[in-house]
């Protein structure tokens, strides 16, 4: 048995949530080959240095610094569709060359085969739109459904149909199952540091840089120990700027220790980040959705309305004010059910 795990390079969230899946496969003594590109490929090579890796075509998505996020994505769509076709062709060659028997794809829509079992991991069975873009929602989501239907099943990283992903999954008639929150971390047993503020910067450019700059400007005003993990995997450099420690990248074990030790975490409201926060049971969290990204904006609203964490916009980021609001929030309750993933793997591999 030989499984090809294909991972989207769109921020680091797809790579990080693939780690527990790959670990389960290794535990089962199954041969694994990993395919990705860019920062995600670099991260996974650091986590699994003994595995075989294949570089897949890069999607090269850029987030706009200004203007309409959705219009920007539509303009990049022809290039994205071309990349999906290219990765599909490459995967067919890999199946023959490496004797691949199964495919697990995290949000790479071209990584499937009609010849062998193929599963896609995603919580987006439906894309959320807002404002004038609702007019095109039916067309876009019909296209998405056709792309997902090429896989034998969709694995949704959530506990069930009434979970946080409900708006993305409800009513979509595709073969699917829920596999629990996918996090590379384990629930902590250590006490936290009462003063450390940790900023987690991630996501595609240009918004990654804009978030880092805004966060650094805010943290330099506070007289508290602060660290920013920049989400850059090309070099593991560490430096101090205006009293704030800047770390390009950390291996999973070191990042987990830092997150456990932090009193306050400031991060994007990406779904992979939220899964990590649930797993670690973090109580004091400030989330900043990527501007214009409807998924993160919805997740931010969900967290805010349920008083789980403080949510601010990037343009109105005020860390000192946000910290003052943290006592009104319940925090993320530690939650991780590996039984759902194990059951899904049992069915997939047998």
Give a quick precis of the structure.
By secondary structure, the protein is an alpha/beta fold. It contains eleven helices and 14 strands.
Which helices and strands, and how do they pair?
Elements: E1 2-7, H1 13-27, E2 31-36, H2 38-47, E3 52-55, H3 69-98, E4 102-106, E5 118-121, H4 137-148, E6 153-156, H5 166-169, E7 176-178, E8 197-200, H6 207-219, E9 226-229, E10 238-241, E11 244-247, H7 252-261, E12 264-267, H8 271-280, E13 285-287, H9 294-305, E14 310-311, H10 319-325, H11 338-349
Parallel strand pairs: 1-2, 1-4, 2-3, 4-5, 5-6, 6-7, 8-9, 8-12, 9-11, 12-13, 13-14
Antiparallel strand pairs: 10-11
Helix pairs in contact: 1-2
Order of helices and strands: EHEHEHEEHEHEEHEEEHEHEHEHH
CATH topology of the largest domain: Rossmann fold
CATH-defined architecture of the largest domain: 3-Layer(aba) Sandwich
Strand order of the largest sheet: 3-2-1-4-5-6-7
CATH class assignment of the largest domain: Alpha Beta
Low-confidence stretches: none
Count of β-strands: 14
State the share of residues found in helices, binned by percent: 25-40%
Structural class: alpha/beta
> Average pLDDT value?
90
How many separate domains?
2
Radius of gyration: 20 Å
CATH homology superfamily name of the largest domain: Glycogen Phosphorylase B
Form type: globular
Largest sheet: 7 strands, parallel
Count of alpha and pi helical runs: 11
Written description of the protein model:
With 350 residues, the protein is of the alpha/beta class. It folds into two domains: 2-181 and 337-349, Glycogen Phosphorylase B (Rossmann fold, 3-Layer(aba) Sandwich), CATH 3.40.50; 197-328, Rossmann fold, CATH 3.40.50. Helix content is 39%, strand content 16%. The protein starts with a strand and ends with a helix. The model has no long low-confidence stretch (mean pLDDT 90).
């Amino acid at each position: 048995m030989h499984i090809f795990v294909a991972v989207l390079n769109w921020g680091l969230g797809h790579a990080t949530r693939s780690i527990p899946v790959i670990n389960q496969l290794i535990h089962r003594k199954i041969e694994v080959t990993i395919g990705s590109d860019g920062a995600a490929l670099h991260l996974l090579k650091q986590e699994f240095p003994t595995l075989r890796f294949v570089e897949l075509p890069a999607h090269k998505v850029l987030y706009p610094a200004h203007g309409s996020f959705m219009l920007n994505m539509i303009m990049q769509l022809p290039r994205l569709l071309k990349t999906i076709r290219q990765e599909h062709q490459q995967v067919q060659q890999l199946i023959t060359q490496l004797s691949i028997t199964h495919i697990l794809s995290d949000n790479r829509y071209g990584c499937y085969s009609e010849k062998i079992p193929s599963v896609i991991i995603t919580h987006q069975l439906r894309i959320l739109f807002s404002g004038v873009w609702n007019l095109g929602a039916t067309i876009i989501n019909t296209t998405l459904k056709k792309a997902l239907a090429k896989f034998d099943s969709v694995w949704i990283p959530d506990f069930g149909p009434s979970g946080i992903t409900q708006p993305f999954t409800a009513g979509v008639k595709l073969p699917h199952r829920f596999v629990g929150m996918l996090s590379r971390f384990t629930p902590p047993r250590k006490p936290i540091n009462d003063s450390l503020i940790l900023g987690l910067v991630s996501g595609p450019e240009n918004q990654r840089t804009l978030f880092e700059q805004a966060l650094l400007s805010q943290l330099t005003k506070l007289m508290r120990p602060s660290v920013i993990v920049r989400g850059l995997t090309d070099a593991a450099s560490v430096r101090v700027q205006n009293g704030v420690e800047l770390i390009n990248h950390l291996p999973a074990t070191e990042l987990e220790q830092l997150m456990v030790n932090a009193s306050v975490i400031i991060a994007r409201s990406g779904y992979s980040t939220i899964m990590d926060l649930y797993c670690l049971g973090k109580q004091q969290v400030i989330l900043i959705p990527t501007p214009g990204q409807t998924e993160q904006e919805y997740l931010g609203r969900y967290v805010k309305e349920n008083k789980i964490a403080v949510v601010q916009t990037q343009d109105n980021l005020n860390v000192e004010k946000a910290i003052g609001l943290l006592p009104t929030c319940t925090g993320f309750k530690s939650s991780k059910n590996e039984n759902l993933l194990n059951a899904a793997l049992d069915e997939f591999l047998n």
